[in-house]
Design a protein that fits this description.
A hairpin with a 4-residue loop joins β4 and β5. α2 packs parallel to α3. The strands form two sheets. Strands 1, 7, 8, 9, 10 and 11 form a six-stranded antiparallel sheet that branches. The chain has a five-stranded antiparallel sheet with strand order 2-3-6-4-5, sandwiched between helices. The longest helix has 18 residues. The chain folds into two domains: about 120 residues, Impact, N-terminal domain (Ribosomal Protein S5, domain 2, 2-Layer Sandwich); about 70 residues, 2-Layer Sandwich (Alpha-Beta Plaits), CATH 3.30.70.240. It is of the alpha+beta class. The two termini are about 45 Å apart. It is built from five helices and eleven strands; from the N terminus they run βββαββαβαβαββαββ.
Length: about 220
């Protein structure tokens, strides 16, 4: 399993150029069917839009798809896809719907619009990183709990749960490749008085910064229709 970045929930952003409106919409999708369902919803929400351009990147099967939906070749779908790629996200679908404003924008204007709209949508999205993790269960006597809690807070560890019974049992989530070393450190910290159990590897959330988006140079192609 490898770490990857994705988004939580749906997000939108809008860009306008010479009265043409470009609405970028991003949403998580882990399968092609989820991506297609998302696109169907977008089309139903914007039936009067001139174009419904899209791109999606899926980890399953390394699926990458895009569509210009009637815009000149290489002016729409590819810019949307490049924004997703430059942001480093996957398991994400993005649609950009265009309401035509009556003025032709040219290839450069279209590339700019189909870059800005998904950038704005991603700027409003919550970007997260999922990485291989393990949960470490640590049971300590109450006399050692303050020392343990201080160490966890000092290191910024993610505490998933805590149970207060005869002892205190804390469930701590760490990166998979840190789990054994972390368990050994806790053994030293508690002088061997802690009961420690390391769980199986799983994909779990890790904090990740929100990217600023990607820029894209104009691509030559057909004149706008």
């Amino acid at each position: 399993m490898e770490a990857y970045r994705t988004i939580e929930g749906r997000s939108e952003g809008e860009y306008e150029d010479r009265k043409s409106r470009f609405i970028g919409i991003v949403e998580p999708a882990t399968t092609e069917q989820e991506a297609l369902d998302f696109l169907a919803r977008v089309r139903a929400e914007h039936p009067m839009a001139r174009h419904h351009v899209y791109a999606y990147i899926l980890r399953a099967g390394n699926r990458v798809r895009y569509s210009d939906d009637g815009e000149p070749k290489r002016t729409a779908g590819i810019p949307v896809l490049e924004v997703l790629q430059h942001a480093g996200v996957s398991d994400v679908a993005c649609a950009v719907v265009r309401y035509f404003g009556g003025t032709l924008l040219g290839t450069g204007g279209l590339v700019r619009a189909y870059t800005k709209a998904p950038q704005l949508a991603l700027a409003h999205a919550h970007i997260v990183e999922l990485a291989p993790c393990r949960d470490v269960m640590v049971a300590v006597p109450y006399a050692l709990y303050d020392q343990l809690a201080h160490r966890l807070a000092e290191e910024g560890r993610t505490v998933v749960d805590a149970v207060y019974a005869d002892d205190v049992t804390v469930q701590v989530r760490v990166l998979a490749d840190e789990a054994e070393r972390f368990a050994s450190q806790l053994t030293d910290l508690t002088n061997g008085r802690a009961e420690i159990l390391v769980g199986d590897e799983q994909m779990a959330l890790v904090d990740a910064p929100t990217p600023t988006g990607a820029s894209s140079d104009a691509v030559s192609g057909e004149e706008e229709r």
